[in-house]
């Protein structure tokens, strides 16, 4: 009984001593008001990231994963820097998979964007000895069977 009476007394004193704060529901838009990065700055940032001499395989994968998670197709100069990074850590498979990921990022405009990318990075591919997924035969299923309706 004393416990409940002391609780009620504490609430009454609290309300009387501390004025109620007037809270109004004002819509507040919380947005990113930081500096906006231009396309050139974005490309330079990722190019510098992949051109680091001390980069390791995990960091390369992290950078590539971040790029693949964005709504963009990487610029050819970013792709070139990433391919050089893959060869520095001697990860040929990662280089080929990154080219495949870039092709996938082209979406429905793959026939327009992907040939341009290959055209731009071809000298780098030749220099590093990297073949495209199409040259390796990765664009077709390995054990594809002939359609029974075409026999």
TrEMBL record:
<keyword id="KW-0496">Mitochondrion</keyword>
<dbReference type="GO" id="GO:0006123">
    <property type="term" value="P:mitochondrial electron transport, cytochrome c to oxygen"/>
</dbReference>
<keyword id="KW-0809">Transit peptide</keyword>
<keyword id="KW-0408">Iron</keyword>
<keyword id="KW-0479">Metal-binding</keyword>
<dbReference type="GO" id="GO:0046872">
    <property type="term" value="F:metal ion binding"/>
</dbReference>
<keyword id="KW-0349">Heme</keyword>
<protein>
    <recommendedName>
        <fullName>Cytochrome c oxidase subunit 5A, mitochondrial</fullName>
    </recommendedName>
</protein>
<comment type="function">
    <text>Component of the cytochrome c oxidase, the last enzyme in the mitochondrial electron transport chain which drives oxidative phosphorylation. The respiratory chain contains 3 multisubunit complexes succinate dehydrogenase (complex II, CII), ubiquinol-cytochrome c oxidoreductase (cytochrome b-c1 complex, complex III, CIII) and cytochrome c oxidase (complex IV, CIV), that cooperate to transfer electrons derived from NADH and succinate to molecular oxygen, creating an electrochemical gradient over the inner membrane that drives transmembrane transport and the ATP synthase.</text>
</comment>
<dbReference type="InterPro" id="IPR003204">
    <property type="entry name" value="Cyt_c_oxidase_su5A/6"/>
</dbReference>
<dbReference type="GO" id="GO:0005743">
    <property type="term" value="C:mitochondrial inner membrane"/>
</dbReference>
<dbReference type="Pfam" id="PF02284">
    <property type="entry name" value="COX5A"/>
</dbReference>
<comment type="similarity">
    <text>Belongs to the cytochrome c oxidase subunit 5A family.</text>
</comment>
<keyword id="KW-0597">Phosphoprotein</keyword>
<comment type="subunit">
    <text>Component of the cytochrome c oxidase (complex IV, CIV), a multisubunit enzyme composed of a catalytic core of 3 subunits and several supernumerary subunits. The complex exists as a monomer or a dimer and forms supercomplexes (SCs) in the inner mitochondrial membrane with ubiquinol-cytochrome c oxidoreductase (cytochrome b-c1 complex, complex III, CIII).</text>
</comment>
<keyword id="KW-0999">Mitochondrion inner membrane</keyword>
<keyword id="KW-0832">Ubl conjugation</keyword>
<keyword id="KW-0472">Membrane</keyword>
<dbReference type="GO" id="GO:0045277">
    <property type="term" value="C:respiratory chain complex IV"/>
</dbReference>
<comment type="pathway">
    <text>Energy metabolism; oxidative phosphorylation.</text>
</comment>
<dbReference type="InterPro" id="IPR036545">
    <property type="entry name" value="Cyt_c_oxidase_su5A/6_sf"/>
</dbReference>
